[in-house]
Design a protein that fits this description.
There is one protein chain. By secondary structure, this protein is mostly helical. It has two domains: about 350 residues, no CATH class; about 110 residues, no CATH class. It is about 65% helix and about 5% strand. The protein contains 23 helices and nine strands. A five-stranded mixed beta sheet has the order 6-5-7-9-8, sandwiched between helices. A two-stranded parallel ribbon has the order 1-4. Helix 1 packs parallel to helix 17 and helix 6 packs antiparallel against helix 16. The longest helix is centred in the first third of the chain and has 27 residues. The protein starts with a helix and ends with a strand. About 45% of the residues are buried.
């Protein structure tokens, strides 16, 4: 690529970045710090920076954190830059979206003939949607390592298309440090694609696959994945009963139709591209590699059905995220160019896609979630945020009791917003239980022992405080307990002298 092309590409990225970030954020219902899965990642990073945090919940936090290097990367990054975690997460969200846009534009430059088609693809990528029965979305309204890993994996696709396999491998490895399972699917996709595309590299690809397999076996036998080749017993599986996305054989027929529907879409448009003489040199291999993920998914089904822990924890349904991405690339080509490409057709497609993204994003942001700000960089300064600010001033070793669904109810968990241990956070603790039986049973037992939170009595609260070494209760109830802080309907009570 010559210097003028590089300059034009960089210019397009700079011009497109702000509207892309804005549309992606609107379609995600705004940016929010501490939301959803950040209940996993933020405490792990905070504990990595300050080991005195979370003395009670450390084992729960580490049960997932030890599977990635996110806390080992982002924590030191915060220390070096002297940037607080909320601001750092916001910056990383922008980096994630910038890399995703860069990947989309580079892929579009390879697949399409017009710049307008590139605009259409960039706009299409902002249309956040769920990958059916996978527990994931194409975009999130908060920083998530999985999203950054995907963006890096998408960039690895561009390096494959250019035949720069060394850089491709490095990108997939970087993605793996952030979110191993997302990177695994990219590794299989691009590994198979490279094997198909390059006869001269088949021996190195096989050797690399053997090395990765040996490393995986070592990790399963004596490394961070040890103990995952066991069958989940009935008691453990029962704690995951509400998470049907983990068990494909429990999916309704519609979920199978949607997810397997990517295959005929990709195959049909591939045939049209071949008939139009539009195929790229490595495109057949790219398609074979992507569709090979379906074979992997089907191969894992018997192990998943048998309750093998690893086959469940890998969440193989997320391979359909990769098929979704390729299908979007293809559908945009079919709409914007097809067999009879023209600037006018591509321009119309681009304008239509941008309008669709603007309308949908406006609806999501201002109709579905009218109370949200477009960007909430730190913990919200509502009643919950004020209570959590007060909580951060308590002893670091203090233990807290709150509604088991407090993170969903108020937007952030106590572990994130107050940086304190909490008795139970049912939704996310239950999800972490997928990786650790003890955590799963602990979550179940504590939810049951807590009972109906709105009817919690002072005596029950004190009994839990004595048993579990708890110091404070945050609730909307008026109770006969020593009140130490209030904000709106929320009250904080001290449970022990």
């Amino acid at each position: 690529m010559n210097q003028p092309e590089v300059s034009r590409g960089a210019g397009l990225l700079v011009v497109a970045l702000l509207p892309f970030v804005l549309l992606a954020t609107l379609n995600s219902g705004g940016y929010r710090y501490g939301a959803s899965d950040q209940a996993f990642y933020a405490p792990a990073i905070l504990e990595g920076v300050d080991a005195s945090l979370f003395p009670r919940d450390s084992d729960l936090i580490r049960s997932q954190a030890r599977l990635t290097l996110v806390d080992n990367v982002i924590g030191p990054l915060g220390r070096v830059t002297d940037v607080e975690l909320p601001t750092l997460f916001a910056a990383l969200q922008v980096v994630t979206l910038a890399l995703l846009l860069l990947a989309a534009l580079r892929i579009a430059k390879s697949f399409y003939k017009t710049s307008w088609a590139s605009v259409a693809l960039a706009a299409a990528v902002t249309l956040r949607h769920a990958i059916t029965k996978s527990g994931t979305n194409t975009l999130e309204g908060y920083f998530h390592p999985r999203q950054l890993s995907f963006a890096i994996g998408a960039l690895a696709i561009t390096e494959f298309l250019r035949g720069r396999y060394g850089l491709m491998v490095l990108l997939v490895a970087a993605a793996g440090a952030l979110h191993p399972t997302t990177a695994l699917w990219f590794a299989i996709w691009l590994g198979v694609a490279t094997f198909v595309a390059e006869r001269r590299l088949r021996a190195p690809v096989l050797a690399g696959a053997v090395c990765v397999a040996l490393l995986g076996i070592a990790a399963l036998v004596a490394g961070p994945l040890a103990g995952r080749l066991v069958r989940m017993d009935a008691e453990w599986l029962a704690t995951l009963s509400t998470k049907d996305y983990l068990f494909p054989l429990r999916w309704p027929l519609t979920a199978w139709i949607v997810n397997l529907g990517y295959v005929p879409i990709i195959a049909l448009i591939y045939r049209h591209r071949r008939a139009a003489g539009a195929l790229l040199e490595r495109e057949p291999a790219l398609v074979v590699g992507c569709l090979s993920l379906v074979v992997v998914f089907l191969a894992l089904l018997p192990f998943n059905a048998a309750g093998l822990a690893l086959a469940i924890q890998l969440q193989p349904a997320r391979i359909f995220w990769m098929l979704d991405f390729l299908a979007i690339i293809y559908v945009v080509w079919a709409v914007a160019e097809g067999r009879t490409p023209s600037v006018a057709r591509a321009r119309l497609a681009a304008v239509g896609m941008v309008v669709l993204s603007v309308v949908r994003g406006t609806y999501v942001m201002f109709v579905e979630f009218p109370d949200r700000r477009i960007a909430q960089i730190d913990v919200n300064r509502d009643d919950w945020g004020q209570a959590m600010t007060w909580a951060r001033g308590t002893e670091r070793s203090s233990g807290w009791l709150a509604s088991p669904d407090h993170a969903a109810r108020y937007g952030t968990s106590i572990r994130v917003a107050a940086e304190r241990d909490v008795f139970v956070e049912a939704i996310k603790d239950g999800a972490v239980g997928m990786y650790d039986r003890a955590v799963a049973l602990r979550t179940r037992d504590r939810v049951e022992e807590l009972g109906d939170f709105p009817t919690l009595s002072p005596d029950h609260a004190r009994a839990l405080a004595r048993k579990y070494d708890l110091d404070y209760l945050v609730t909307e109830q008026t109770l006969d307990l020593p009140e130490v802080f209030s904000a709106g309907k929320l009250k904080i009570y001290r449970l022990r002298p």
